[in-house]
Amino acid sequence: MPVSLCRCKFSGEMRITMRKIWTGIIASLLTAGCLFASGFATLKMGSDARSAGMGMAATAMGAGGAAPFWNPASAGIIQGQDVVLSLHRWMDDIQSEFLGYAAGNGKHGAGLYVLFTEVGNLEYRTVPSNEPLGYFSAHEMVVGATYARKITPNLTLGLAVKGYYEKIFTDDTWGLGGDLGFLYETSIYDIRVGGVVQNIGQTGRLEHDSVPLPLTGKLGVIKPFSMTGGEWLATMDLVREKDFPTHIHAGAEYCWHALIALRAGFQSGYDTRDITGGIGIIHHQFRFDYNYMPMSVLGDSHRLSLGISW
User: Fold this and answer.
1) Whole-number pLDDT of residue 14
2) What are the extents of the domains in the chain?
3) Contact 211/219 with Cβ under 8 angstroms?
4) Which residues contact 188 (CB under 8 A, 6 or more apart)?
5) pLDDT at position 92, please?
6) CA distances in angstroms from 22 to 37, 90, 140, 195, 244, listed in the order given
7) What is the architecture, at CATH level 2, of domain 8-309?
8) pTM > 0.70: yes or no
9) Residue 164 and residue 214: Cα distance in Å, rounded?
10) 8 Å CB contact between 34 and 20
11) Lowest-confidence range among 215-219, 221-225, 270-274, 290-294?
């Protein structure tokens, strides 16, 4: 189903207020308000199916090739190498692809990832009409490189450098930014605490409008435990984006004999999403994960991920 959200003016050539197009599309999907105060909103939809299945409460998780996307300090506790490919379809012609890689020796490590989102079949017009003159697309891409190191046996610090690119119709912009994060292994029941400040930086203008990055702070905890013949993880994040209220993301995972994982999560304070869930299948070094998230009247979100570790 095509999406028609642009405003147009005609004065010898078509002029489109580009920022308002993307604002209208993504704000309706992801925010609890009517106005959207920052760009690159696809960052809020996460990266991989495992984390999404646990309510995107992944700040302290620190596992897999997608972990540095959530917290750059995660690369410092990874042992070995891991790669994740994720495909995400959320609404008609909106889809995302994520590729992440991380490698470490348990003391220091590094990661690379790219997140690409495309919104297709956007209609454009020069005057009100039943039929559009044509169609165009919008794209967002975020590329990140991370490095992390253990400072003490319990404390790990991490840094990410990120590049941002956005294109709507014929206009585009880019920017630079980064993340700062930490992980702390407590001595209380194997609880790990993590924190991160994401998207510190700026981009240029898209046509006449600035594109502020979604500056976000997160504080999370994760607790592993054994029960009913399997391994459990319980995790929770407090999420605060500039100019938005605080959200709670929480989730749990039950893994049976390192073969099958069941996941459920919850996110508070959003108009279009709350519960989420998923399943994972593990075979030796291979992982297959699926995440399902109902998004109210906007339809359903489906995400598939394939992971390999060695």
Assistant:
1) 37
2) 8-309
3) no
4) none
5) 64
6) 12, 15, 10, 29, 18
7) Beta Barrel (2.40)
8) yes
9) 12
10) no
11) 270-274
